[in-house]
Design goal:
255 residues; mainly alpha
């Protein structure tokens, strides 16, 4: 019994990937841009983006503090403490900003989206929309997909600004670094498209991925309290693993 079920378990991720792909194709094929949809999308952007600002701002500031502390300690051993702003900016723009923001987004907004859609499934609200000739894909899935694509890049920008502010607080105000040198080194080494632009492309891709997985696991959640709880857990795990894999793939192509 166990030996027969083992190959089936290994195939579960492949099945999930295929179902998620079909779900995405269905959602995209049914997309319609109407005034009602635009209003719902804006509401979801507020829900997913604006209401995530507290954790993004706090996390960004302290990531900048810790990253600058560790970088300053290491570089000062080699007499290169002035390069701390360069390491901080490149690390944030290329990797840490998009990845950490998406993980925080998945933990806060992604789980909420999954739980909301899962509860709609459990309470038969999605079936009720079908009975009223309202497409649930159009009314429920589309706004949340678009909201993630818009909200995550905006949150990445805010995260990076707060992290750099944390770096300034530590390097300039706590360690006494020259602020002119700090900003000049950052400006001289960071390239707009190669560093900042590539990071924003990652943010768009990660936002799409995170919102897609959130709505998919909510849509396919079992209509029970245990099923909804499992779906929210799967959202966080799947998003974290997928973002890290996609980050490596995109980094390899971009560099």
């Amino acid at each position: 019994m166990n030996s027969a079920s083992t190959p089936t378990r290994w195939l579960d991720p492949i099945r999930h990937l295929g179902r998620a792909g079909l779900f995405l194709l269905t959602a995209i094929s049914r997309m319609r841009l109407t005034r009602l949809q635009a209003g719902e999308t804006l509401r979801q952007i507020y829900f997913a983006g604006v209401r995530s600002l507290v954790i993004i701002v706090t996390g960004g500031f302290f990531v900048g503090l810790v990253l600058t502390l560790q970088t300053y300690d290491t570089l000062s051993r080699f007499g290169a403490a002035d390069a701390v702003s360069t390491v901080l900016a490149l690390s944030l723009f290329r990797e840490l900003g998009p990845v950490l923001t998406t993980l925080l987004f998945a933990g806060r907004a992604g789980t909420s989206i999954t739980a909301e859609i899962g509860l709609m499934r459990a309470t038969e609200q999605l079936d009720a929309l079908d009975l009223m000739a309202i497409d649930p894909m159009e009314r429920i899935v589309q706004p949340r997909l678009l909201a993630g694509i818009v909200a995550v890049p905006a949150l990445v920008l805010i995260f990076n600004v707060c992290a750099i502010l944390g770096g300034v607080v530590f390097a300039v105000f706590m360690m006494g670094s020259d602020p002119i040198t700090f900003w000049a080194n950052m400006q001289a080494t960071v390239e707009l498209w190669r560093d900042f632009g590539h990071g924003m492309l990652k943010a768009v891709a990660f936002g799409f991925l995170a919102s897609w997985l959130a709505v998919y696991f909510g849509w396919t959640a079992r209509p029970t309290s245990e099923g909804v709880a499992l779906a929210t857990t799967q959202t966080v795990i799947a998003t974290a693993i997928s973002v890290l894999i996609l980050d490596f793939v995109l980094s390899a192509f971009m560099l």
